[in-house]
Amino acid sequence: MTSVVNTARRARLGILISGRGSNMVALADAVHGGRIPNAEVSVVVSDQANAAGLAKAKERGIETLVIERRGRTHEEHDQEIVEALRARKIDLVCLAGYMRILSRGFIDAYRGRVLNIHPSLLPSFPGLDAQKQALEHGVKWTGCTVHFVDETLDGGPIILQRVVPVHPDDTVESLAARILEEEHQLYPEAVALVLENILELSAATTDDRRV
Ligand code: GRF
Q1: 180 Cα nearest atom in ligand 1
Q2: With a threshold of 0.90, does the pTM exceed it?
Q3: Buried b (16+ CB within 10 A) or exposed e, 131-167
Q4: Which residues in the chain show pLDDT less than 50?
Q5: Is 19 near ligand 1, meaning CB less than 6 Å away?
Q6: CB of 62 closer than 8 Å to CB of 28
Q7: DSSP code of residue 48
Q8: Does domain 11-210 have CATH number 3.30.1310.10?
Q9: How many CA atoms lie within 13 A of 203 on its CB side?
Q10: Which of 112, 155, 200, 208 has its CA 20 to 30 A from that of 174?
Q11: Which residues are part of the catalytic machinery?
Q12: C-alpha span between 93 and 68 (Å, rounded)
């Protein structure tokens, strides 16, 4: 087994966004506040030049990159993002409202090291408009999920989930806002958990090599 994080330095996070970036802010603030220990947000990448989250990242002194699709194939676009992440020695990639499905090449390059947050209790309501799907289905409870990203749509191994009630008078907006509050707590917890376990794995691997 190979070590995926160099324990001699802080883990380097790369966050991919397409829009508002409130989960990116929650992660960056959790790193800053020590709730995600031994880590730094090294870069925020957006596929949209007008993503509101870019300004929020810059305000926090984080490097930002805009890498637009612009007539290239999905694979070429993803490859450019992977190269940018590799150039910055990114250990863990966090999708935070990134509105594209990752290509096989991206997933292979960062297998087991890409996380996503989704606004439902997966495997219920994958894909777009998860809050609307939950309302239309009439569920009484929904929530949010942080999971590893694999080739399936919102189907990779689940890391953490949080349950949120659906109120009888909820609109998509009111439900989405209630879920989002929980997302902002859950994503940092999940990232801290993953980094802790990667570091443990890394330390164990180093010990094995010594024997
Ligand atoms: C969140 O609801 C997240 O669960 C989903 O996209 C939304 C992104 O919001 N994947 P933000 O850009 O983090 O504010």
Answers
A1: 2
A2: yes
A3: bebbbeeebeebbbbbbbbeeeebebeebbbbebebe
A4: 1-3, 209-211
A5: yes
A6: yes
A7: -
A8: no
A9: 8
A10: 155
A11: 118
A12: 18
Instruction: Assess contact for 37 and 110: CB atoms under 8 A.
Output: no
Domain ranges of the chain: 11-210
Contact 3, 36 (CB under 8 A): no
What pLDDT score was predicted for residue 1?
A: 39
pLDDT score at 104: 96
**Ligand 1 contact, 156 CB (< 6 A):** no
96 lines ligand 1 (CB under 6 A): yes
Q: Whose CA is nearest to atom 7 of ligand 1?
A: 97
Which ligand 1 atom sits nearest the alpha carbon of residue 21? 12
Residue 115 CA to residue 49 CA, distance in Å, equals 23
Please name the residue whose Cα sits nearest to atom 12 of ligand 1: 21
Give the Å distance between the CA of 209 and the centre of ligand 1: 41
